[in-house]
Fold this protein.
Amino acid sequence: MGRAIRIAIVGVGNCASSLVQGLEYYRHASEDERTRPIGLMHYDIGGYTPADIEVVCAFDIDARKVDHPLNEAVFAKPNNTRLIWPDLPRSDVIVHMGPVLDGVSPHMEDYPEDRRFVVAQRPAVDVVKVLRDSRADILLNYLPVGSQQAAEFYATACLETGVSLVNCMPVFLVSNAEWAEAFRRRGIPIVGDDIKSQLGATILHRTLAQLFVDRGVKLTRTYQLNTGGNTDFLNMLNRSRLSAKKRSKTDAVQSVLPDPLPDDHIHIGPSDYVPWQQDQKIGFLRLEGRIFGNIPIELEARLVVEDSPNSAGMVIDAIRCCQLARDRGIGGPLTSISAYAMKHPPEQLPDTAARERVERFIRGEIER
């Protein structure tokens, strides 16, 4: 085992719940599971295993989570993801009240309390002080889609404390030149933006689009529609919060095409909130194109997956690569793991090329 990687979590929602449960699951992995791990790039990355990742502080704004131990908070409403390891050991981490800022969309007030956020009526803590006192190495940003101000607030806290950032949500920080340069000047490694799933709608869409390109099929029109019943989909009913999310997912697909599709020939984004789906996500994909002799071809796919666990393994890999960069004194955006694990990285790469770049980074053959 390597030394502990001390992480802070912002947003104790479904994704955080899957991560915390998953860390405990992999701590108890059999030798066979460690040799051929499910859901992870490697069980061991640069001497670090999932067992080395330790949550040392957490922030949320929900009354059912704030002031509660982390092992209880990850199961509190409105969380509704499928259980991985329900019997978590008691945690010494008590969830802190973070600043609300733009983290809660007003339309959520129209929905039942067990489906939406319930803001705790208490002042926010001094986030910078908590990060310093916890001696966190890396902060995970799991804020809701559209939380621009809140994401920038926590990024600024990272700059003040020297804590690395793994930005799992679609606010462009790591892929923004000014933010990237600020972290580079401070020598702080960062990973982002907008986490991919292990096998989600975006990676599937990219793979199918790449298949069209590789086989000489001209892609002419495509869409991706997604439905779900978690707070992420409820939050995204407010379409004004979606501009970065739509751009992140659309750019991820457009980047594999030799010529980008016109805006009115590509539509990628959430479709609707279906409460009974809980944390299950259903993705619908359609691709239209032209083959030999300009003959039309159509392809449709339907993906059903538990949404939050689907990205947890990618986050565990990103955390460990980020810690390797800290050990090596590397600052600024980590382009290899960002291209592999994120939808909107600073540099888009084909997925196979990104995977190879990460392997080379782990081996120390390339710097970032």
Remarks:
- The longest helix spans residues 309-328.
- The longest strand covers residues 280-291.
- Residues 201-306 form a domain with the Dihydrodipicolinate Reductase; domain 2 fold (CATH 3.30.360.10).
